[in-house]
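Hi D.,

Good news: the full-assembly prediction came through. Inputs first.
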Amino acid sequence: MQPKVYVTRRIPESGIALLQESCDVEIWDSDDVVPRDTFLAAVADKDAVLCLLTEKIDAETLSVAKNAKIFANMAVGFDNIDVPECTKRGVMASNTPGVLTDTTADFAFTLLMAAARRIREGHEFVHAGKWETWGPLLLMGQDIHHATLGLVGLGRIGTEMARRGQGFSMRVLYNDVVRREDLEQELGLEYVDFDTVLRESDFVSLHVPYMPETHHLISTDELAKMKQSAVLINTARGPIVDPAALYTALSSGEIWAAGLDVTDPEPIPMDDPLLTLDNCLVAPHIASASFQTRSDMSELAANNILAALAGERPPTILNPELLGDS
Ligand code: DGY
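Then the structure:
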């Protein structure tokens, strides 16, 4: 009998095709989130689950999914998975690092440019029939070239963001719990403390994982330290930024603009005050959404499952201590 795998959403076909070569695959065949009770019923008899950041893999899930050897997240972020609880129960967990790095950095830089140069306002201006003449004062924005880019977090995506900043002749500052002197040399980055990133940057871009330590890392005090001309970019996780504090800072002119691919909560409610602001650009969590990258993510998640089911090492396992080899 083939192993049973549950996939919690429609995902790119290439990952499904890999699984179907040797597994009995059940898919929540929808673009909507699987309801929690349906999810719990479905995972009860599965040997592996390909899940998304919309599913909570917690003690309740793990106690229901008694046969599951692995929960393979199709995302690099895994704040939806209680990894220590998985480990305690001998269940593997995996994510999809690497394959989405460049695509996500491309998008973070796109948001930075769009917010700095007021692309959304320009588009709306044209569509509202307001474009009557070339205007010397019309929709002026912030320069990107030779500005200072401040990175909070210098992991894979933060590093690629630094390279993009270099391409625009930017001064690049960073702060992280780990100092990377090799990258400072290679990319001409400056390691500074968190406050200096906030005070000296024209663009502050967040590239840290979401965890208790990074909850509301950017709130009233941090926004107050930023330049009035500064732009905040968040492609990491919504709750890293305090949304009420951000609204106050943007609406009072304490900072100049924000570009958000992630919000708290997601989706952002239509009556969220941030949506009333012209200087807040919001995208629906699509930084990794290129055709190629989403296929690569689905394949990596599938390969993690296939390895776990074959008794091999999943390529991007999050709790390798279960394998006893690290
Ligand atoms: C991730 O991978 O964590 C993103 O948020 C979705 O691609």
